[in-house]
Amino acid sequence: MTGHHSWGYGQNDGPSEWHKLYPVAQGNCQSPIDIIPAQAIYDPCLKPLSISYRSGSSLDISNNGHSVMVDFKDMDDKTGKQKESPAIALLLPSEWGIPGNPPVLHLVHWNAKKYMTFADAVEATDGLAVTGVFLEIGYEHASMNRLTDALYMVKYKGTKAQFKSFNPTSLLPPCLDYWTYPGSLTTPPLNESVTWIVLKEAIQISDKQMEKFRTLLFTTEEEERIQMVNNFRPPQPLKGRVVRASFKA
């Protein structure tokens, strides 16, 4: 994920410094962005969102030193056999702040709230289609426990654990109305090959569940412990892009 370069979220290697190693960081289609619903354009041609993991299965959960991810393996729809190469299908529970300082990834201006975002990246012919799901502090999300209860196994950077039979669609809100715009990966290499699909409806997560994410570390077991918090990139300039909506405001 880091390629051959070192990057992070500190003062000397954080988002403000990424452009030195990744010039595309100052490109015209960078993510995340502020979403201003009043400025979004309703597009009746946008199709309803359909997300299914029936053709895949979760393999493992891992800590890459920047965030934590769940990997999936594609299955052949006709034979049911596992394909030889891993699918580009990831669940990325990412970008959480410290208590009282939530992250700013895809800030929605109609309610002035800031959210932790789950991003679900799936392979597309022209790049990545990424579905962002907002999480709002509130009631406990029953399906979230399946994920948060596994985090202790990947506390340290570079750790991986088996994580079978997890269906990420259980984390989605009932309403799948969304905004969409052309963007990028939110971490290096920051490739501008992403179509972001950001659901308008947040789901709830409890303080207790959020605290489990904050037990993760940026560092290995042998290194000085650095808590994995504030691992998010600030909103980037829109630079003439149009945010489209699948619904009428």
TrEMBL record:
PROSITE patterns per UniProt: ALPHA_CA_2
GO biological processes: regulation of intracellular pH
GO cellular component, one term: cytoplasm
Membrane-traversing stretches: none
GO molecular function per UniProt: carbonate dehydratase activity; zinc ion binding
Residue ranges of domain Alpha-carbonic anhydrase in the record: 5-247
Domain of life: Eukaryota
UniProt-listed Gene3D superfamilies: Alpha carbonic anhydrase
UniProt-listed InterPro entries: CA_dom (IPR001148), CA_dom_sf (IPR036398), Carbonic_anhydrase_a-class (IPR023561)
Similarity remark: Belongs to the alpha-carbonic anhydrase family.
Protein name: Carbonic anhydrase 7
